[in-house]
Give the backbone structure.
Amino acid sequence: MSQTKFAYFEGEIRPIEEAKVSITCNTLHYGTGCFGGLRAYWNEEQEQLYAFRLADHYKRFLNSAKLLHCRLDYTVDQLIAITVQLLQREGWRENCYIRPIAYKDDGFYRVWLHEATDRVAITSQPVGAYIPVDKGASVCVSAWRRIDDTSIPARGKVNGTYVNSALAKSDAMLSGFDDTLLLNQDGHVAEGSAANFMMVRDGVVITPPLTSNVLEGITRRTLLELIREELMIEVAEREIDRSELYLCDEAFFCGTGAQVTPISTIDHRSVGNGDVGAITNQIRELYFRVVFGKEANYMHWLTPILQREAVYA
Ligand code: PMP
């Protein structure tokens, strides 16, 4: 059962029981909304909750809204302030997930975007691993293709697009895999059902470019910077063929939910020798140090949620 007690809903932080939308809500019928997915990490030593890259997540959220003709009366700074207040009210002292959503709340069944009433809600809840695998995920290439930018823009986090993700994920799980990789309409690797993809070949970290119908992932961007700047490992953003998946030395998913999830098999072929690779481990360790507030150079990506007086009171 959800432990969530509060929601930002219709302009205020309210008890979660009051945050209800109507059965006539346009987004419920047509998927005409967009959302975000953020994490905050509990640093036990510092007794502090750190939210990760709030400004970047909310910039993408407002961009997704723009794609859908949403008229949202919020700035990035306002959304950050609401999120801080909400997390303070919830008082989480553990890792948690934050979910903003913009939705069209009309009483009319109209398949359009431009004249609906747009609303924003934000909720949060404690969270563990999204793909709970320590040794590495077993993954298949999906028979479903990633939705194309000419159909629904993949770079926005559009609610309706997740039917594509859910079809791919469920079919993979029902066939015994942990997750799946979707190819784009050109037949190149796009991404996982809810995570970006990276692989290592001959010491180079390779990931599909943003024009391969992938979400403009904040974790992807974070890792590319950390891999280049801190680990001094070469990075290539280029198209990936399906057959390269079977020949790579290491592979992993990255995303707010997936964090850095190693992949051990793809279509029943082992990735490298099947163990979590050395570069993947290095990346994963550094990522967790950054998000938990243990890397002084990257504290600008973190927003401390708890006021110190409150923590030590
Ligand atoms: N691709 C898809 C389809 C996703 O749902 C997600 C999760 N938001 C990602 C990639 C990773 O994006 P981010 O790192 O911003 O969470």
Residues 70 and 195 are 25 Å apart (CA to CA). The pocket of 4'-deoxy-4'-aminopyridoxal-5'-phosphate is lined by residues 37, 165, 191, 194-196, 215, 217-220, 255-257 (CB under 6 Å). DSSP finds eight helices and 17 strands in the chain.
